[in-house]
Amino acid sequence: MKSAVSAGATGAGAAASGEVGLDAQARLDLDTLLTMSKEATSESDRGRQRKLLRYFLRRSMPFLKAHPNRELWVDRAVAALNLNRPREGWGAGRKLLALGGLQTSDEREHKLLEQLSIKGWLGKAPPWPALGAPFENSLGMKFAPVPGTSVLFSVWETRNRDYAAYAKADPVVDSSWQNPTFQGVAVSPGPDYPVVNVSWNDATAFCKWLTRKERATEMIGPSDLYRLPTDLEWSAAVGLQGETGDTPQERDSKVPGVYPWGRTWPPPPGSGNFCDGSFAGQFTDAKDFAIAGCNDGYAVTSPVGSFHPNQFGIFDLAGNVSEWCQDLYSADKAGHVLRGGSWAPSFGRVATIEAEEMMSDKDRRSLLGESSPNLDPTAQKILQIIRSSLNLDPALLSSDLVAAAPTNRVVSLGFRCVLAVGGSAATARSTHE
Fold first, then answer.
1. Pairing between β-strand 322-328 and β-strand 413-414 as defined by DSSP bridges
2. How far is CA 68 from CA 224, 252, 267, in A?
3. Residues 148, 106: one domain?
C-alpha cells in the first residue's frame, strides 16, 4: 500500500530537524519513532498500516512536546494524510509553516504542504468535524452524515476496543462488559466485536468521556458533542419514512413490513447477524426461536461491519446487538428506547411462539393448517397471516422499539454514538435532559 507521501528524512539537516542537544536516550527515542513511521508507511496490508500509523501518532506527540523535531512533524503530517485525520494534519502543517516550510528547498516538504492545503488543513483555525462530511476520531471510530439529521452517525456499533480505551482511562468503569458469555459461549470475544453488557447509563458515560477527551485534544470543536442517537435520528439512519406520533411509544412498530434491508422475508444473505440457523446449531434447546431459512454464520455477535452497509454507509442497523437510544420510551418515562434487534431471540418472537405453544391441540392444528376445513375464506386468510408470523421476528422491523431500564446490562445490548456538530450540540443537550 503506497502512502500519499512517504516518511523519511527531509534533508534539512540535523540542526533544522532539532537533533542538536538530544541526550542519548532522547536520540534513541527519536530513532525509534522515525523507524516506526517508516515501517508503517511501507506496510502493504492496509489494516495493519492504519493500526501502526495510529500508534505512531500516539507515541510521537509526547516526544515532540519535549523535543521539537521537524522530521517527526513531517512524518506526523504523512500519517494524518494516510489516516484522513484533519486535526493531526492541521497541527503538523501549522508547525511546519512556523518552521519555514514555505521557504524550504525540500521538494518533499513542499508537496506535503500542498496536499495539506488542498484538504483545507492549513487554516488558522483547526478543521473541526463538519456536517455532510465523513469523520474519523482518535479511536478510529468512523462517522458518516445522514440526510435529515444534524449529526454524524458512527458507521459501526461501539467496539470492545473503543470501550477498552474508556475503561483504561477510568478504573471505576463497571467490568460487566469484559468476557461476557451466553450459556457458556463467549460473546463478543475480540476487539472489533460490539461491546455488550453495557447499560444506558454506561453508554451515556462513555459518550461524555469521549467528548471530554477529544475536546481537550482539539480533535473536535468546543461545542461538538458525542451522545446516543435520538429515536428519530435512528429512524433517519435506517431510512425509515412515514412515521407518525409524538413519542417513541406512539411510533413503535407503526410501519409494518419494512426492514432495514427492504421488504423481503426471511432476511436475504448479507443482511446482518440474526437469531437464525447459526444460533439454533449452537443452542439447540432454543432452536424453536430461530428464524428459518437464514444462516449468517454467527451463533452470537459478529465483528462490526461484517455485513452489507445501508445506503448511508452504516452497518448493523439490523441485528448483531440492540442499540440504546437517548429517548425515554413514553411520556411516563417507562424506560429508554432500544432499536435494531440482535443476535438473540427477541421478546416479541419468544412471546409469539410461547403463545402458540399454549394453545389447545385443536387450535394449534388449525393454526398450522393441519385441520381447518370448516373455516370461511376470511378466517382462512387470517390464519394464513398468523401462520406466516410465526417465522417473523418483529424486533427486526425498522420501526420496532423496546423499552428497557437504564441500568439493564444484557449480552445482546450495545450502542453506537453520534457526533452532534457545532450548534446541534445544544439540541442534543436539551433532548438528553
1. parallel
2. 30, 57, 56
3. no
Per the listing, cell 394453545 goes with 359
Say whether both 113 and 151 belong to one domain.
Answer: no
Residue type for position 246 = D
Query: Which residues lie across from 186 on neighbouring strands?
Result: 181
> What's the pLDDT band for 92 if we cut at 50, 70, 90?
very high
Nearest by Cα to 156 from 107, 194, 117, 108: 194
Looking at 217-332, list the stretches that DSSP marks H as alpha helix, in order from N- to C-terminal side. Answer: 231-237, 248-251, 277-282
* CA–CA dist 255, 259 (Å, integer): 9
Residues 320 and 193 placed together within one structural domain of the fold: yes
Whole-angstrom Cα distance, residue 210 to residue 420? Answer: 13
pTM summary value: 0.71
Q: Cis ω on the peptide bond leading into residue 266 (within 30° of 0)?
A: yes
Q: What is the largest CA-CA distance in the chain?
A: 98
The candidate with the shortest Cα–Cα distance to 156, out of 414, 429, 350, is 414
Which pLDDT score, from 0 to 100, does residue 389 have? 44
Residue 75: predicted pLDDT: 95
Q: Which residue has the cell 495510529?
A: 54
- Strand, coil or helix: 374: coil
